Amino acid sequence: MAKRGFPLVRILGFDIRFDLTWLILVALVIWTLSAGYFPQVLEGLPTETYVWMAVLGAIGIFASIIVHELAHSVVARRYGMEMRGITLFVFGGAAHMPGEPPTPKAEFWMAIAGPITSVVLGVIFWMLAALFESARFPDTIVAVLGYLAGINFILAVFNMMPGFPLDGGRVLRAILWGWKGDLRWATQVAAAIGGGFGIVLVVLGVISVLFGNLVGGMWLFLIGLFLRAAASNSYSTLLAREALSGEPVSAFMTREPVTVSIDTPLSELVDEYFLGRYLKAVPVTDHGRLVGIVDVRRTKDVPRDAWPTRRVGEVMKPVTPDETIRPDADAIEALEKMLESGRTRVLVTEGDRLVGIISLSDLRRILGLRIDFLDTMRAAEPKVA
Questions:
Q1: pLDDT digits (tens, 9 = 90+) for 137-148
Q2: In the chain, which end has fewer C-beta atoms inside a 10 angstrom radius, N or C?
Q3: What number of other Cβ atoms are within 10 A of residue 135's Cβ?
Q4: How much is the pTM?
């Protein structure tokens, strides 16, 4: 996910990006504030006043989310953890860390930094609201500041719920990890609690809808589903890292992959590769050098009667760094590339030569086997009294 989305700004060396789903949240926040919250707080104002108050409130919310995530990132960097930026999406924001924290202490302070920052922001906004009110600033400004104070306190409380991967769940995992010295067990417990918390939100969402709160209930329902899935995925990711860490890509890749020449006619590409071998995309080579990838979509854009005369090199796309990996790279890096980009395979290259392909289906199959063996080995380990 870290590499998806669109760049927004760079702060303290961290790239802030936004996913298209974030625009849904922006629109919803502005609508609910302008049509619901501010008209109840200050009655009788023109519609355009409520709209600009809502816009200011939305800007303040997302600035607060960015500062919250920056706090995580800055503390993580202080403990030597790699951070790959921050992405705003429909459920708020997320700081991206490709690996696991090195120690329980690092996890604890990285996790708790966000809620602490939100509390500090809430206090600042509350003090500004009180100061501006005493100085007789317009009620509209005071109302926006008061709203931002409250939303930051709510953000802090919600994030401290002890369910992974919320901040509170990470704090809990750090405590359990430090107590038992077992990251996998700590993650399993924290993720289970996170999944349970997600179910609670889903149930509350259904009840809210039944009692007439359609918008609020839908959001509780969706957030609950998201948290449940995120908790499960977090534990699965840890198992994958445990199973693949230290293993090179070359151990799992398919050698001598199918390729097509740059001079191959599109008619041959379709008949022999897309229809003949049921491939959706094929690496393109020129005298042994990897020069691009050709897929079904690009080929279909060419009129069918032109396929015999058009060549693969005319419709292929260049290979990007996200689509390639070295054979000596860690296999978990290949998995992360696929998960971040949404692709199902990565090309394994040495210089400009294609030496193999590693696919998501292969990694999943290998992961299943390795995790089964790891579980068996852990079960056989002698228990310490």
A1: 999 999 999 999
A2: C
A3: 8
A4: 0.76
